[in-house]
Design brief:
426 residues; alpha+beta; Molybdenum Cofactor Biosythetic Enzyme, Chain A; Molybdopterin biosynthesis moea protein, domain 2; Molybdopterin biosynthesis moeA protein, domain 3; 4 domains; six-stranded mixed β-sheet; 29% strand; disordered N terminus; binds ligand LQZAQKY5; binds molybdate ion
């Protein structure tokens, strides 16, 4: 099944108190996301603020690092061939003509029979090609006895040993690690072009919702979705802004969505997506822009939807907290990550393990089944209601049953996506 027609102000289908006419297959929604979602532009950011950001350009070293030959040990710089026969019993004798220190230019030239006291990191003085470690020497006034033959070039770090000039040190798309900031410092980067982070508006709706942090009274529910979504967005490199929770007031919700679409790259709306008389969101999105998808062959999160207001993507997340998480995992997360230049893939670690008992599903739709991993086996959780968010805290991860299957038999090898964060790589 392909993507059904786009609903606009003129053509919109209002499923309120009618039900869904048609449900789009998950793979078709993902194909639409790949087609319509573009990486955001790059912006210049001070190097020290770039850890965890996505590099927007290839970085090459303009000059070698280090830009000079340097001592790798504390000791004496000299011409190595002159130590050829040195032993404890037959030391080679050198005259110390000065000192070399890091960060200071040493203007002396080391001639035959001469040496310069040097410390680690100092530029090797002219004439010298080798450093003898201080442990292999004895000092007597201006004279230095070298007690060990030291091969030419020993204990010298060569120009470009860390990074050769013109090397690509980091490629575009890299999620910058702390040590990358060190390498960028080395090649002279002060400001770095990184991909702009997706700005994500989170609008929870529902008369029953109160802001988290208070115990709800009768008929009330604490807003569980805003906090969960905020953390998911941060994990995926986006910048969340919490707008709700909003009451089921159509005009107010419409105004907030229109406002959010002006500044956000993605608007996530939780609740009000389904077929009840108070489920205004699909109609509002169709009025303000286009509602491309409403109703997905996915359980939970069947009422999920996807649309656009101008260039801003709008994702309809069903209000039931597990459905909200599922719709984020399948649709919103990929959008946030793609906009930010990150891989679309789940940031969860996959593991292939056998099922302890059958996992039942219905062919024709994708199932997002919460599971526990116990003694190397996958145990489907009995509580599958989409309103039971604690099923996801009890679960170690989830198994996706594709739409062409009606489940898996016991002992089938399945992929579990572990909720523990998979360290992102770039
Ligand atoms: N006739 C039909 N009714 C429903 C269908 C359907 O296909 N036909 N789908 C059901 C499914 S599946 C879901 S999921 C829900 C989704 O409905 P909405 O997106 O409109 O969500 P609400 O009705 O606003 O809320 C559902 C449920 O979740 C609670 N909720 C909402 N927001 C939050 C939040 N931020 N934090 C915690 N809990 C929240 C809300 O109190 C409700 O209990 O529709 C079914 N109906
Ligand atoms: O799909 Mo609803 O999203 O089952 O709770």
């Amino acid at each position: 099944m392909g993507v059904p027609e786009t609903f606009t102000r003129e053509t919109r289908h209002d499923p309120r108190m009618q039900g869904f006419r048609d449900r789009t297959q998950v793979e078709d929604v993902l194909a639409l996301i790949s087609r319509r979602i573009e990486r955001l532009d790059v912006e210049p950011v001070a190097l020290r603020n770039t850890a965890g950001r996505v590099l927007g350009e290839e970085i090459r070293a303009g000059a070698p690092v280090p830009a000079f030959d340097r001592a790798a040990m504390d000791g004496y710089a000299l011409q190595g061939h002159e130590t050829k026969d040195a032993t404890v019993r037959t030391p080679a004798l050198f005259h110390c003509i000065g000192e070399a220190r890091p960060g200071h230019l040493c203007n002396l030239t080391v001639g035959p029979g001469e040496t310069i006291q040097i410390t680690t990191g100092s530029a090797l003085p002219r004439g010298a090609d080798t450093v003898v470690r201080v442990e292999s020497t004895q000092r007597e006034g201006p004279m230095v006895r070298v007690l060990e033959a030291t091969a030419v070039g020993r204990h010298v770090g060569r120009i470009g040993e860390d990074i050769e000039a013109e090397t690509v040190v980091l490629s575009a798309g890299r999620v910058l690690r702390p040590q990358d900031l060190g390498v960028l410092s080395a090649v002279g980067a002060g400001t770095v072009a990184v991909v702009r982070q997706s700005r994500v508006a989170v609008i929870s709706t529902g008369d029953e919702l109160i802001t988290a942090g208070h115990l709800p009274s009768a008929y009330q529910i604490a807003d569980m979705n805003s906090g969960m979504l905020e953390a998911l967005i941060v994990r995926d490199g986006g910048v969340p802004r919490i707008v709700g929770p909003l009451p089921d007031d159509r005009d107010r919700i419409r105004a907030e969505i229109a406002e959010a679409a002006r500044w956000a790259d993605v608007v996530l709306i939780s609740g009000g997506t389904s077929t009840g008389p108070e489920d205004h969101i699909p109609g509002i999105v169709a009025e303000l822009g286009e509602l491309v998808i409403h109703g997905v062959a996915l359980r939970p999160a069947g009422p999920a939807g996807l649309g656009f207001i101008g260039r801003t993507a709008v994702v309809l997340l069903p209000g039931n907290p597990v459905s909200c998480l599922c719709a984020y995992d399948f649709f919103a997360g990929p959008i946030v990550r793609l906009q930010g230049g990150r891989p679309r893939n789940w940031p969860y670690r996959p593991m292939s393990l056998p099922l302890s008992r059958p996992l039942v599903s219905i062919a024709g739709r994708v199932d997002y089944a919460r599971v526990k991993v116990e003694q190397g086996q996958v145990e489907p959780l009995a509580t599958s209601g989409a309103s039971i968010l604690s099923s996801t805290t009890r679960a170690d991860g989830f198994v996706v049953v594709p739409s062409e299957l009606d489940g898996y038999p016991a002992n089938a090898l399945v992929t579990v996506w572990l909720y523990d964060l998979f360290p992102p790589s770039g």
